[in-house]
Amino acid sequence: MAPPLFAQFINLLAAILLLLAFAMLAQRRVLSLIDLFAAQGLALACSTAIVAYGTAQPHLYFSAGLTLVLKVFLLPWLLHRLIRRLDVKWDVEGLINVPTTMIIGLVLVVFSFNLAVPISQLASTVTRATLGIAMATVMLSFLMMITRRKAIPQVIGFLSMENGLFFAATSATYGMPMVVELGIALDVLVGMLILGVFFFQIREQFDSLDLKHLEKLKEGE
Amino acid sequence: MIEILFVLGVPLAGAALLAALGHRGIAPAVNVAVSLGTFLAAAALTARVVTEGPLLVLDRQFFVDPFNVFLVALTAFVGFTTAIFSRPYMRIEEEHKRLSAPRLRLYHSMFQLFNFTMLLALLTNNMGILWVAMEAATLTTVLLVSLYRTPASLEAAWKYFILCGVGIAQALFGTILLYFAAEKLLGAGGGALLWTELNAVKAQLEPTVLSLAFVFLLVGYGTKVGLVPLHNWLPDAHAEGPTPVSAVLSGLLLNVALYAVIRSKVLVDGAVQTSFAKELMMGFGLLSVVVAAFLLSRQKDIKRLFAYSSIEHMGIITFAFGMGGPIANFAGLLHMTVHSLTKSAIFFTVGHATQKTGTQAMDDIRGLIKISPLVGWGLAIGSLAILGMPPFGVFASEFLILTTAMKEQPWAAPFLLGALGLAFAAVFSKVQPMVFGETTAKRLPVRPAMVPVFVHLALVLMLGLWIPPFLAAWYREAARLIG
C-alpha cells in the first residue's frame, strides 16, 4: 500500500532538504549561501505544516509559523544586513576542495542512514523514513562547519544543523513540547544577535572575518 | 515553592536592574546584594528541603531532591563569594584602563543572568528546559569571555561559542531521542520530558534509542564539562576572560553540565540492562584525567594551568560516577563540592596575583608572599588543597575514589595514581617559585578581597575532617538515587 499523499509530500520535502544541504556544501558565494539557508527554512516550514495538517496536530502549525518567521525572513535578513554593514562580499574558500567535500558528504549520508535504521523501525509516525535524512542534514552541516574557515559560513552551517535537528524532532516525534520549542527558538535568536555583535568585534580587531587570524591559541602553550 | 521563585527571580530581576542602572559606583555593591539575596533564597530552599523532603511544584515543572539541592546551595554560595571578589578586582581592572563603563555594565548584568541560567538548569524538572538553560548559559558567558576585546579573548570566545554550540546541538538531538522514546509511554505533550515521569517508567524505555540518546547527551553536555577530547575551548575561555568569570566557569558551569550528564545516566541505566553508560563515562573520565595531567606540565600561563587542572578533576568525577555504587557516587558528589570551592578560591588568588605582577606568565610571577602574604598563602594552600593533600576535602574524596577503583576497576587504578602524581609534580613545581623567592609584585591601589578565599578553603578543610550529618545524609541519598 502506498503511503498517504501527505506522507509522500513530506518525503519529497525531505529530499529537497538533503539536496539543499549538499548545495550549501558546494556553494562558494556567501550571499547565495544565505539564500540557500532561507530555502532550507522554507522547506522545513512547509514540511512541518504538512505534518500538522496530516496528523491533526494543531500545535505544529504554530511551530511551522515560528520556523517561517525566524528562519526564512528574520535570520536571512539579519545576515544580509550584517554583510552589507560589514561590507564584505568575499567568496568562501574551503579547506578542502569541493569534489572531495562532496565525497565525504556522501559517506556521511550513508553512515547516517545506517545509524537511523534501528530508530526508524521503532517509530510509529508516518514520517519515520525521514529520520535518516534529518540525521544526514545534521552531519552535512557539521562537515560544512569544519571545512569553512570564514566566520559567516560557519554560522550558517550551525543554523542549518539546527534545521536538521528540528526536522528530526518533527519527523520522529511530531514536534517537541511547546515550551521547549519556544526556548530553542529564543536561544537561536539570541545567539544570532550575539554573533552579530561579535562579528563587529572581530572585524574591528583584525580587519577581516577570516578565521585564520583566530588560530593563535594552541594547546599546551 | 515561594523559595524557588525567589531563587530564580532574584538573579533575573538583578540582571535587569543592573542593565538599567548602568555602571555607577553603586553597581558592584548592587551585584553583591543581589547575589546575597539569591544565596539567602537558596538557603531558605535548602532549609525547606531539609525539613520537608523533596519538592515537586508548579505543575511538576520544578523538582528539588537531595541531588540538586546541595548543588543549588553551592551555586548560589560561589556566585555570592565571586561577586564579593569581583568588586575590588573589577575596580582595579578599571583603574588599569582595561575595562570601560559600558563593558562593566555588560559584565554585571551578564553575571547575574549566568547565575539565573545555572539555577534554572539545576531546578527544572524538564529535560528540554535543562537544554535551553545550558545553551543560555553558553550565550551569556560568550560575552563575558570576550569582555576585554583583545584578539586572544575574541578568539577564545569564538572557539567557545562554536565548540559548545555544536556540542549543545548534539545534546539537543539526544533530548529529541529521549522524548521520542518516552512519548510512546507517557503520551505526547509536556509530560514526556519531565525527569520525574521518565524516572518512573525508565525500565520500560526502549534500550536502543536510550543508548543512542545517551551517546549524544554525553558528547553534548560533555563538551561543556570539558571532557577530553572535547575540551579545547576550556583553557582558552578560562585564560582570556576576566578572572571572576574563570572562577564561575570552573566552579559552577562544569558542575552543572556534569549534573545534566548524570541525570541522563540515571535514566539510561534504568532502561539499558548493560553497563554501557558506565563504561562510556569511565572511559571519557580516565582519558581526561590522563591527558590533562600530561598537559599540565607544559603550561606557561597560570590561568591555563588551573584550567587544565579543572579538566583533570572533572575527569576524576566523571570516572567516579561511571564506576557507580554508593561509595564512588558519594565520593563523586563530595569531589564536586570541594573542587568547586577550592578551584574558585584559587582563581580569586590568581586574579589578584596577576594584577599585582601585571602578567599571566608564570615565569614572571615571583615571590608573592613577600609583598602580600595573604595572596601568597592563599595560592600555596589552595594549590596544596587541589592537589589532594590531607587533611583537605579533596584528599578525602580522591582517597575514596581511588580505593573504590582499586577494588572494582583494578585496571584503572594505576592510570589514576600515575596521573595524580604527575599533576602534583607539575603544579607544585610551578606554584612554589611563584609564592616564595624574590618578588616582582607591586602594591595594588585597592585592597584585594581575600575573605572569600579563606572562607572557601576553611570549608574545604572542614569537609576533609568532618562532613555535617545532613550533608552526609544527602550525599548518601543522592548516591543511592544515582545508582
Describe this structure in words.
Chain A is built from seven helices and no strands. Chain A has 221 residues and is mainly alpha-helical. Chain A starts with a helix and ends in a 15-residue tail after the last helix. Chain B has 483 residues and is mainly alpha-helical. The longest helix of chain B is centred in the middle third of the chain and has 36 residues, at 151-186. In chain B, α8 (207-225) runs parallel beside α11 and α11 packs parallel to α17. At the A-B interface, α4, α5, α6 and α7 of A face α5, α6, α8 and α9 of B.
Count the strands of chain A?
0
Major beta sheet summary of chain A: none
- SS-based structural class of chain A? mainly alpha
Q: What is the percent of helical residues of chain B?
A: over 70%
Give the largest interface pair and sizes. Answer: A-B, 50 and 53 residues
Ends distance of chain A: 63 Å
- The outline of chain B comes out as globular
* Strand runs of chain B, count: 2
Mean pLDDT of chain B: 90
Mean pLDDT of chain A: 81
Model regions low in confidence, pLDDT < 50 over at least 5 residues of chain A: none
SS field, number of helical segments of chain A: 7
Helix content of chain A: over 70%
Q: Quick one: overall form of chain A? A: globular
Low-confidence stretches of chain B: none
What percent of residues of chain B are in strands? under 5%
Biggest sheet of chain B: strands side by side, in what order?
1-2
Beta-strand percentage of chain A? under 5%
Order of helices and strands of chain A: HHHHHHH
Question: Rg of chain A to the nearest angstrom?
Answer: 18 Å
Total count of helical runs of at least 4 residues of chain B:
19
